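[09:14] KT: can someone run the structure on this one? pasting the chain below
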Amino acid sequence: MMEGYRSGFVSIVGSPNVGKSTLLNRMVGQKVSIVSERAQTTRNRVMGVLTRPGFQIVFLDTPGVTTPKNRLGEYMLKVAYDALDEVEAILFLVDASRGVGPRDELLIERLKTAKPPVIAAVNKIDLVSLGDADEAEEKLRAAEAFADVLRVSAVEGRGLDALEKKLFSFLEEGPQYFPDDMVTDQPERVLAAELIRERALKLLKEEVPHGIGVGIDKMARREGMELMDVWATIYCEREGHKGILIGKGGSMLKRIGTEARHEIELMLGERVNLQLWVKVREDWRNSVSAMREFGYEP
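[09:31] RB: done, structure tokens below
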């Protein structure tokens, strides 16, 4: 261990759609967690690593805290709460454009019993007036649950230097857990599946996305070429959703595939041949075996 080196883990928590994944990606300088306007986009704990000279912060992005409606929802809530333990600090995010709502207040009560120090960040200040940001900050400070309250815009990067400095103050002397060039612990197969799901979430109608799961059937580099072949299946819960996913003449599936392929190529740094299929798997969000197949461990 390098003398004087500091390191630690920070859990990012909050209600759905407050910008946790956007913040994580901005902090580590690379997309490691998918982003969409849909609630429950993040389903698993996603690790992102920020390495600077003399210190390393390991972020744990968690699913948005909401009332579970199925086994997958119960699993996501457990992931979020489990991430509050055994970390050096907790970062609680609030959406300035929505203010501090009832769901946030319930989570604040839970955070009051957390052992690590909790920092609150009012995110999306780029979308609101100064008065709205003031109101959200005042409400958070009045809760008397936080070591500090900051204002940030994860999209624009505003306030993140101050946030990094504040989180650094909670790090303890310790080892560098991960190499300088490592930004996440997620395997390429998991990242590829998530990038496909992200594209589907952004392109599909409201009734379909929550019931989508993506499985990577095979991922192999073509011999003698800088080309990765990826075979993947998008699973939905109803026969009617399959038609929406495929689209007229296969148009929607082709669009999802084209956009996802581009994202996977950026991640891998090489050309990708992506082949997509769609299958129905009824009520998979209540199936332990299906959840495990898609990378969720209930």
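[09:33] KT: thanks! Residues 23 and 154 are 5 Å apart (CA to CA).
[09:34] RB: yep, looked fine to me
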